[in-house]
């Protein structure tokens, strides 16, 4: 029963159609090209074509979403302006199949992987909330249409299913890997599937933010998405708005509001088939508890914790030899600057390239098994997985088994990283690592220079971290070696 309900209700996407050479890459740039054609009057398109077509292709297939946005109209046909390859890609991305959510995702220029289903549902809800298109219905209990069609229904469903399953039920995640970030065709999830894998969570947050923007006034979708995600993987112009999605979503829909909307959409689902079966024996207090837990865990994972780009996304080489396991929680954190490259990286492509260069240097010149750092911080708003949380690094000689080495890309001898990057480490990474059990609540923070003969992490950065929580001003006791 639970498996059937999962398949019926999950907000995921994509059929298992094989990719042919004529099909464009699964990149946001391919989607932008399609949207531009669909909404360009010069090519026979018009505003609103994309959202209407998305609905017909299956963007909104769950009971709650259809209660908000209504039933799709008719069976879609390929617009003449789209090539067969573009039509195949669009059909695969928007036809939802909860068994294969990875097929509904595209790689964005900022390195994030976005499910198009909740993104387009949020865009339509935002437009209609602002009075553009058919009015939205008033549901009982009242719900926020924007949150209902993007994340609230998926969250409530996921946590209800987990409540009825075993203690090991997965409620959020996992993330995944692309086969080729330059020509992405296949996305593979890295763990057990939940109704809210990372691409769905990211697409939902983006759908909320962009839907809220469109509620203030219409804008061509290609133009909207181009400005939000940036254009092309090679852009060096700076961080796109999408790299701030966690902060901006948290400001727009914090834990309290999200909890309220999860409870509200579960109330709506009580009256809808087949979801009413899921809620048949669930009381009001149980719904409130599910909503509270769902909102709390979502905010902790996707708002308060920073995104970490896995090794597969920055195209890491394999580890040489056999890595040694760490035994968390650990009590020490060592902060570094990379020195080379000297300039902070502000885009996914630049940061991924810096990671590859550092790994080559560490493996080929220094003869290490892998890149030395546990985690690396870019100025693009993301962390990059080095050795990661589970494997002994090569960052702080004599202490690698006792703590994590965090490197910030750049030379911070005379200047500091930007404020957003400092906040990312101090206020997001370190508290999240405590909550997730990687470091102890009483951890101590050290600059690399306190443990060896080096100027790292640079005079400016070392001066800065002395005011951070957990900083220990004296060298680590020799007895810890």
Describe it for me?
This protein is of the alpha/beta class and 481 residues long. 41% of the residues lie in helices and 9% in strands. It is built from 16 helices and ten strands. The protein has helices spanning 2-9, 28-38, 49-57, 63-69, 84-94, 116-129, 145-164, 198-214, 221-229, 245-252, 255-269, 275-278, 284-304, 348-365, 419-435, 459-465, and strands at 105-107, 113-115, 176-178, 187-189, 308-309, 330-337, 375-377, 383-385, 403-408, 439-447. It has a six-stranded mixed beta sheet, with helices on both faces. A two-stranded antiparallel sheet has the order 1-2. A two-stranded antiparallel sheet has the order 3-4. A hairpin with a 5-residue loop joins strand 7 (375-377) and strand 8 (383-385). Helix 10 (245-252) runs antiparallel to helix 13 (284-304). The model is unreliable at 1-19 and 476-481 (pLDDT under 50).
List keywords for this structure.
481 residues; disordered C terminus; alpha/beta; disordered N terminus; single chain
Mean pLDDT: 90
Radius of gyration: 23 Å
Low-confidence stretches: 1-19, 476-481
Q: Please count the beta strands (DSSP E, at least 2 residues each).
A: 10
What does the overall shape look like?
Answer: globular
Order of helices and strands: HHHHHEEHHEEHHHHHHEEHEEEHEH
The proportion of residues in beta strands is 5-15%
Oligomer: single chain
Q: Treating each run of at least 4 consecutive H or I residues as one helix, how many helices?
A: 16
Largest pleated sheet: 6 strands, mixed
Report the structural category.
Answer: alpha/beta
How much helical structure, as a percent, in the residues? 40-55%
Q: Strand order of the main beta sheet, please? A: 5-8-7-9-6-10
Termini separation? 55 Å
């Amino acid at each position: 029963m639970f498996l059937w309900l999962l398949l019926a209700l999950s907000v995921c996407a994509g059929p298992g159609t094989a990719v042919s050479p004529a099909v464009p890459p699964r990149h946001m740039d391919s989607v932008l090209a399609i949207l531009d054609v669909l909404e360009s009057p010069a090519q026979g398109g018009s505003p609103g074509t994309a959202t209407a077509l998305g609905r017909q292709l299956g963007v909104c297939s769950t009971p709650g979403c259809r209660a908000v946005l209504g039933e799709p109209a008719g069976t879609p046909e390929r617009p003449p302006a789209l090539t067969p390859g573009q039509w195949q890609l669009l059909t695969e991305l928007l036809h939802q199949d909860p068994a294969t959510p990875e097929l509904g995702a595209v790689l964005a220029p900022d390195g994030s992987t976005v499910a198009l289903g909740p993104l387009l549902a949020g865009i339509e809800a935002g437009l209609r909330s602002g009075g553009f298109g058919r009015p939205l219905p008033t549901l009982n209990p009242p719900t926020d249409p924007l949150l209902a069609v993007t994340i609230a229904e998926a969250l409530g469903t996921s946590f209800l299913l987990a409540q009825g399953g075993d203690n090991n039920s997965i409620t959020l995640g996992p993330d995944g890997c692309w086969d080729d970030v330059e020509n992405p065709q296949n996305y593979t999830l890295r763990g057990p599937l939940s109704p809210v894998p990372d691409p769905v969570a990211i697409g939902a947050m983006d759908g909320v933010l962009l839907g809220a923007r469109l509620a203030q006034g219409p804008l061509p979708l290609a133009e909207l998405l181009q400005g939000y995600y940036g254009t092309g993987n090679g852009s060096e112009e700076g961080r796109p708005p999408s790299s701030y999605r966690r902060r901006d979503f948290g400001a727009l829909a914090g834990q309290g509001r999200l909890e309220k909307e999860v409870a509200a959409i579960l109330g709506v689902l009580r009256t809808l088939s087949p979801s009413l079966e899921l809620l048949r024996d669930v009381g009001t207090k149980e719904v409130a508890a599910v909503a509270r837990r769902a909102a709390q865990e979502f905010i902790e994972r996707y708002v308060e914790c920073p995104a970490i780009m896995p090794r597969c996304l920055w195209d890491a080489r394999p580890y040489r030899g056999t890595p040694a396991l760490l035994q968390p929680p650990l009590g020490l954190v060592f902060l570094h600057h990379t020195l080379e490259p000297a300039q902070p990286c502000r885009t996914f492509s630049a940061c991924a390239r810096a990671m590859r260069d550092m790994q080559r240097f560490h493996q080929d010149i220094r003869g290490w098994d892998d890149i030395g750092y546990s985690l690396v911080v870019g100025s693009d708003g993301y962390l990059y997985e080095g050795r990661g949380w589970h494997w002994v690094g090569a960052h702080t000689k004599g202490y690698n088994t006792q703590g994590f080495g965090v490197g910030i890309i750049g030379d911070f001898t005379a200047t500091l990283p930007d404020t957003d990057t400092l906040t990312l480490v101090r206020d997001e990474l370190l508290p999240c690592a405590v909550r997730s059990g990687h470091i102890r609540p009483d951890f101590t923070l050290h600059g690399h220079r306190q443990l060896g003969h080096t100027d790292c992490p640079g005079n400016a950065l070392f001066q800065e971290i002395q005011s951070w929580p957990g900083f220990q001003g004296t060298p680590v006791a020799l007895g810890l070696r």
